[in-house]
Amino acid sequence: MATTAPVHPVDEVPPARQLAAFGLQHVLAMYAGAVAVPLIVGGAMKLPPADLAYLITADLLICGVATLIQCVGFWRFGVRLPIMQGCTFAAVSPMVLIGTTGGGLPAIYGSVIVAGLAIVLLAPVFGRLLRFFPPLVTGTVILIIGLSLLPVAGNWAAGGAGSADFGEPKNIALAAFVLAVVLGVQRFAPALLSRIAVLIGIAVGLAVAVPFGFTDFGGVEDADWLGISTPFHFGAPTFEASAIISMLVVALVTMTETTGDLIAVGEMTGRKVEPRSLSDGLRADGLSTVLGGVFNTFPYTAYAQNVGLVGMTRVRSRWVVATSGGILVLLGLLPKLGAVVAAIPAPVLGGAGLVMFGTVAASGLRTLAEVDFKGNHQLTVVAVSVAVGMLPVGVPTVYEKFPDWFQTVMNSGISAGCVTAIVLNLLFNHLPAKGGSGLAESDGSAGGGVEEAGGEKSREEAV
Fold it and tell me: Helix-strand-coil percent breakdown of the chain, rounded to 5?
């Protein structure tokens, strides 16, 4: 009898009801971050409410399209892993500067289109750099991703940064209640329900928040039923050299962050990212960014909070996240639905975010457990990389006196930590040892030390 090859969990298609529930869970996990970028940029440029609403619906639409490209893929575009796409925060400061110094939205979109094309062209180069991401580097980067996201969850739990009741005990109590529900469902509910623990926690938290006055559904009534983003709604793009240069720096930062996220998802799903698939994922980022510039939104990257959700729920199907992309497209075309999701209180998201983002950090620790830390400099690589990555998270103004390009790279804890880990791994594990020939004291390509018993032979093989 003929036997069919087993389907990898990444390629499995769950039943329709599970697809909808798991997909909605991913959307709720990333929604606040997705709409934050257009709100910040549009607010800094003092755009009228109608234009802000337009930016948000355009963003949600292209978020969905970008997620579908990444998960489903076509030709050499898309990593075909459960990856959610959203606007990158690394581009916020440069875009605000471009938009408020005379260039306006057309100059922003011109630089975004050029940056997207640059990412498409540079994707194969980054793919060939994958050998410089051994478990030592990938584990450190995943750990930094999780740790750098925790303050985001903390701000949500306290009521949302800038809110009038920030830090009120009632906000913390609601976040703690949601966290308790998520943990309770994970521990005591049947396996199927435990996989949608975050969705259940958010739903229960919202049900509790409504009678206590945490929610405001006023925006739902004001929102339109139908909204379609048309190309170049704010005018034809303009191409200014200074804007393009700053956005190219952002492109390098987002490529570094996306590389870390793709490797993290590959580790969690059991389908490790290879140089070709990494190039395909980055190429999808570039295409999505070009679409962003055309359809009135901003650069796109993989969203780390959804990486944590994959690790926490152990739902590895890319079709689940593709369903999330479809939901985002609907939200972008139906602004009233988007307004309903936007009414979820920040503390509810904060309670769920704590466990999701903590899961990312824990996954980094699990990857680092593969590394041999005895008799080598691996611990130094991890220690310094985490310290550099956490510096802008703990002290956001630490680099405010530095040039803009430097701030663009180093103000992102993820990119700062990732660059540091790569450089230190090269320094300690790939450069010649003090004696002259061979590698340094350990071989970073495997994430551990060179075996002493192998002597010179193992060193030559490593080279």
Answer: 70, 5, 30
Beta carbons within 8 Å of 33's beta carbon, 6+ residues apart: 86, 89, 152, 303, 305
How many whole angstroms separate alpha carbon 260 and alpha carbon 247?
A: 20
Task: Dig out the tokens for 237 from the structure.
Answer: 């793009």
Tell me which residues of the chain have a pLDDT lower than 50: 1, 436-463
Spell out the alpha helix ranges (H) of 189-317. Answer: 191-194, 197-209, 218-222, 241-269, 275-294, 304-313
Give residue 163's pLDDT: 75
φ/ψ (deg, to 5) at 77: -115, 125
Tokens describing residue 258 = 């996306």
Q: Can you read off the two tokens belonging to residue 212?
A: 């206590």
The DSSP secondary structure of 39-50, one letter per residue, reads HHHHHHTT--HH
Both tokens of residue 441?
């004291």
pLDDT number for residue 88: 81
Both tokens of 80, joined, read 């075909």
- DSSP notation for 140-207: HHHHHHHHHHHHHHHHHHTT-TT-TTTT-HHHHHHHHHHHHHHHHHHHHS-HHHHTTHHHHHHHHHHH
Q: Are 353 and 148 in contact (CB under 8 A)?
A: no
What pLDDT, on a 0 to 100 scale, did the predictor assign at position 434?
Answer: 59
DSSP state for residue 446 in the 8-state scheme:
G
The pLDDT tens digits of the residues spanning 312-343 come to: 778 889 999 999 999 999 888 877 766 666 67
187: amino acid identity, one letter? R
Spatial distance between the Cα atoms of 416 and 394, rounded to a whole number of angstroms? 13
Helix axes 241-269, 275-294, angle to 10 degrees: 140
Inter-residue contact 406 to 392 (CB < 8 Å): no
The model's pLDDT over 400-452, given as tens digits with 9 standing for 90+, comes to 888 877 876 787 777 788 888 888 988 888 776 655 444 444 444 444 443 33
Q: What is the pLDDT of residue 102?
A: 66
Rounded Cα distance between 434 and 440, Å, is 7
From CA 402, how far away is CA 280, in angstroms rounded? 34
- Comparing CA positions, the residue from 13, 16, 26, 31 lying closest to residue 356 is 26
- pTM for this predicted structure: 0.72
Handedness of CA 352, 359, 195, 261 (dihedral sign): positive
CA 437 to each of CA 132, 241, 376, 460: distance values in angstroms, whole numbers, following the listed order: 20, 45, 17, 10
Map tokens 């009678």 to a residue. Answer: 211
Question: What pLDDT score was predicted for residue 345?
Answer: 81
Q: What is the pLDDT of residue 110?
A: 92
Distance CA 171, CA 165 (A): 8
Residue 185 phi/psi, 5° resolution?
Answer: -65, -40
Coil vs helix vs strand at 85: strand
